[in-house]
Request: fold
Amino acid sequence: MANVVYDVAVIGSGAAGGMVTKTLCESGAKVILLEAGVEVPPSKFRSHCWPYELKYRGYRSEKQEPFYPPDLAGSFRSESNEGVSVDRIRVLGGRTLHWNAVVLRYAPSDFREHTLQGMEDDWPISYEELAPYYERVEQMIGVCGQDDHLEILPAGKSYMPPPPFRCSEQILKRQAAKLGIPVIPVRKALNTRPNDNRPACHYCGHCMDGCDVSAIFSTPGSMLPKARETGNLTLRQNALAREILVDTNGLARGVSIVDRITQQDEEIRARIIVVCCATVETARLLLNSRSPRFPAGLANSSGVVGRYLNGHLGDSANLYLDELAGTPPKNIDGCLDHAFIPRYKTKTPAGAFDFQVNYSGFMFPFQAYSLKGFGSTFKDKVRAMQPGYLMLGGFGKVMARAENRITVDPNVKDRYGIPIAVMHFAYSDLDHAVFREMRATVDELCASLKGEVMKKMRDRPGGFASHEVGTARMGTDPRTSVLNSFCQAHDVKNLFVTDGSAFTTSSEKNPTLTILALSLRASEYIAQQRRLGEL
Amino acid sequence: MALDRRTLLQIIPAALAARRLLAQSHCSMQAEQAAAPYQFQFFTPDEVTLVDNLMEHIIPADEHSPGAHAARAVEFADLMIATSPDYVKQDWRTALQLVAAELKTRSIEDWLVGISQNEDDPQTVLEIFFPMLKQMTINGYYSSAIGIHHDLHYQGNTYVQSFEGCQHPEHQS
Reply:
């Protein structure tokens, strides 16, 4: 093993790593996929378990516990007072194993914030350049939805049928129309008919607990089978990347890993390294990859690695529609959110928000937390309100600012001796303005819907909804960015980063489709450069 | 290797059935552990009686469905508190001692009526305790088979072939 030199080492097996691995294996490259976690097979998913079948009745994130091994603890510290959180999963497939699968194309304007709004920076790539990759990714992963002909939400050529609206969503659409607010079918990486050798959704409502039939796109369910078929894939699990090693020419030569089981260190050698560890861990890995040639961390001559951390701000509101109160219970689980309110205030930066509807599930009566009193009256009220449940989850753009960043603390190490990641983050005035606009929209919607608002949005936003991006941003200028438009490090030509870290700026839209499109584009560039002998 | 439609139609139901069985057996294993006779870890026998009574008053049995007692919400509470940090345990112990003292001169019903008056703006130790107790009751009851099936008549968490959306014209315009 020690003498094996792979063509490509991919670090991380989430959406980015899965796409890169599949594409490069299919191109003929010998690929080793390094994953710090292990496979959790669908038979071990707890998605369909009833709460009373679980020790803690599903509280304490019990259903998702297999995806978050205990050794993650102590490897991260937040020095932010904003109440934001980041998701640091450790499992084969990463967050594709328990995501809500909302996939939205960025709009042309999302790539040109500096040109159009005079703020942040433009991406080094345009929508028009990325559009063919969006199209192919959508066909590859299977997306349900429709083309609503909105400039702010470009669409592909063909989608599977979207799931139909529930009663609450129809009522929302009816009332929102009176306010000029669009309510359209959501787009999700979800089969509403058999596709990609995967079955159609069975509408159990457990998208985020792990889809046991892979009706939702995931790396293990969709990408890795194709990569394995090529015979070019080597999968190494429990392989936690300690640092990326460089040779005397300043090129990446391999990855130093620690095996989480044996605790042994090992060097995995490869001609090309693709980092797909997600925004926090990618920054941590690059910053921990220090050498005489790269004393500030790998690919960090600009000092930008770790900076421009951002992600969605948001909060949710719950209301209970009078029209549906007391109606007979029926199975409305579906595939969580079926309806979507796209950004509709497109002329002002503070309008950069959208809403996903009803993604919190229908089993638990959240109104019980807010209803006053006790006894039979309380109990009757909880039951009567339950059919009218409508949840609005807002997602807003956060500015990409250099002062928001991930650093590493050399004095505090995790149980494997790796310096931990530290988050520094504060919202900007514009971020707060976006949140205020979002909250005002929710208030306006709630006022137009007859019902009881049982949970209002708070005064300050939460974040990042697992949508953090931006710590190894793309750009045209090596002095102010880490990667070029192919996600290739300016400083190290055989090093690529294709996860959310690569984003120059973000929008109100969920990032995964763009991560997949960037990963496909970067992978094909790598394959081309290999054919040309450039890599 | 692409599969044709006929092959897919043969494979998918079998694969689904196999996965369902696997998932069910996994949940069943969890359920066996969850259904084992519960040994209280935190509450004293007197506290078990007290908390059980309080919870049953918050979500009582009625003509529609059994209440928190039948749903064994007190066992859930015991487990959650026993596995919480020490300060949580101390808060519960202190509050339960105060409640027990209160109930020497008042009925549970009277005490709950009084303490719930300031639910929006709790000030005293017991006013702050009441929302904790109520939330624990809610969490325990509505995660139980009684709460989910008997009371709410929740219909989901199952496999269905298709999803029928809203069929009500009045909801649409």
Observations:
- Chain B is about 60% helix and 0% strand.
- Residues 40 and 78 of chain B are 6 Å apart (CA to CA).
- The radius of gyration of chain B is 23 Å.
